[in-house]
């Protein structure tokens, strides 16, 4: 499961192209299903899949996105009536401990994801801390199945981890990092479903090491990276003057998560193969005339180059989808999101520059190039939402 | 690779059978039966059990055990009496010791068999000595050979400097100030206080040496701290434990009794009492799940729980 969490947070981009992948008739049906899903909190988004067995992963994921958007609207109305969540906890909130917890989250982030950490420095301080807390939770979850103790992980352990997640969402965090996330969750309207889906993704990764088609891979990418996009949308905030729908912003965030994960996968083909895992769709490999053994062998052939070209093209398509929505974000959040999008996109360029050799070479974007992207990202961030062009940052 | 370990937990565990036990070691008068593990997988480590020691039911079943702590796990052994707890700890430590010894012997066999294979393919020296990490900032590992080289180069350097400073420089009347000026002219040109030019040469060389030594030591120490920090688990800072959030690391929680708060008016409000925090059992700390309380960055390095005698 290499490369699950080496993504850079890039929430909220429009995903109109994603919508175009879904046939029109299904879209109509879904909007009718929507109202029933809106108020079924705690019900897994996939329960409706039982009634409709032959739905693609993209449709299922879209349903989750719609539910998220609906919940945000609900929470905006409820927010004024809610009592301060701290009153519900039966412990004493120690602000020093909380501050220390957030600081440690920052340290962990700086240690394990340096570029991402630098990106968070471009955000406002509150958002930065919230993003760190989310990152640390995601990383800890990932290390359960991918870290040094992975051999001792059982489904029961993941169940317990999920119970801890439920507790912290109700204001009863277990340890200090849970406390940081609990505080974040009380300040921003973050929903629990993406977190639960991420744990589900970990469960999936325990079982699977091959993906038959892109549909399965898409679901996996949603679980491990799309969820992160959905988690961070409420933290980044949608610009108040934005006329785009909440769903489209969430879709864009989802697309960015998927794009990041696909980039990770394409960059780490060799590394994953050495651990016996192939995160490429088997049917597409077969269509290109490649087998698992070719990947394990690690030889760059023309077949491989053609295959990689198509994969990179698809990843770029997701990035384009994501790009369409960064403008709908809160003005203060646009710069870091743009920066991370551009930096991650450059990894695809680096793979091409390595002559598609992702077996032995690691596609790497140099520091100079990273720094050069910052002013470009700043320039793009200054452009407001597509409906309202504001020259000054609000 | 994680999938294989995962499934090994679900395999039916081999039971102890009389024909396969290797040693019968009486410890504290209680004979312990140790079976030779048939599979060298993690699950078998937990299957060898002794029949005559007191233990709560179900704790020998590895599929019940879970490495992630939850709010109620601290109380898993809460029903036991103190003597029972001590007996349990002692028996488990004995088991650990015996198991580690078994692993060591198995590894000897493994190494022997591996060497046989390697020797058939070619001569390969197996270096048994551990690598000594160097304390000099830019050097990675120290071996006896590099030690000799270090001695040689440093001796050469020192004698070279002494010869240069003592013989060559005065002979050539080297003036190393800016633009070939002498010391006094240099001081004057730089507009530094003039008493600097009156400094006694012995004092000057002594202070220069002290400054050099102190900065070198500081550099090495800073580098050492950095190296040690790299080995620490980043989540718990090497402590192995995280602060319990329920009691904010204090160990006590407020007793909030919802019934009494809504009790009939006229009765005075009760002073809130504190109770021992159920999360951490009053210790204020909970397990760090990343390093499994080892405090090390990779719990697998030098942790006997993961890889004894590696």
From TrEMBL, chain A:
The keyword Transferase applies. Belongs to the phytoene/squalene synthase family. The keyword Cytoplasm does not apply. GO terms for molecular function: 15-cis-phytoene synthase activity; geranylgeranyl diphosphate synthase activity; squalene synthase [NAD(P)H] activity. This is 15-cis-phytoene synthase. GO terms for cellular component: plastid. One of its GO terms (biological process) is carotenoid biosynthetic process. Pathway: Carotenoid biosynthesis; phytoene biosynthesis; all-trans-phytoene from geranylgeranyl diphosphate: step 1/1. Gene3D superfamilies: Farnesyl Diphosphate Synthase (1.10.600.10). Keywords: Carotenoid biosynthesis, Isoprene biosynthesis, Transferase. Its EC number is 2.5.1.32. It catalyses: 2 (2E,6E,10E)-geranylgeranyl diphosphate = 15-cis-phytoene + 2 diphosphate. Pfam families: SQS_PSY. It comes from the Eukaryota.
From TrEMBL, chain B:
SUPFAM superfamilies: DnaJ/Hsp40 cysteine-rich domain. GO terms for cellular component: chloroplast membrane. Residues 41-63 have a biased composition (Low complexity). Keywords: Membrane, Transmembrane, Transmembrane helix. The chain crosses the membrane at residues 150-169, 202-222. InterPro entries: HSP_DnaJ_Cys-rich_dom_sf (IPR036410). Residues 41-65 are annotated as: Disordered. It comes from the Eukaryota. This is Protein ORANGE-LIKE, chloroplastic. It comes from Herrania umbratica. The lineage of its organism: Eukaryota, Viridiplantae, Streptophyta, Embryophyta, Tracheophyta.
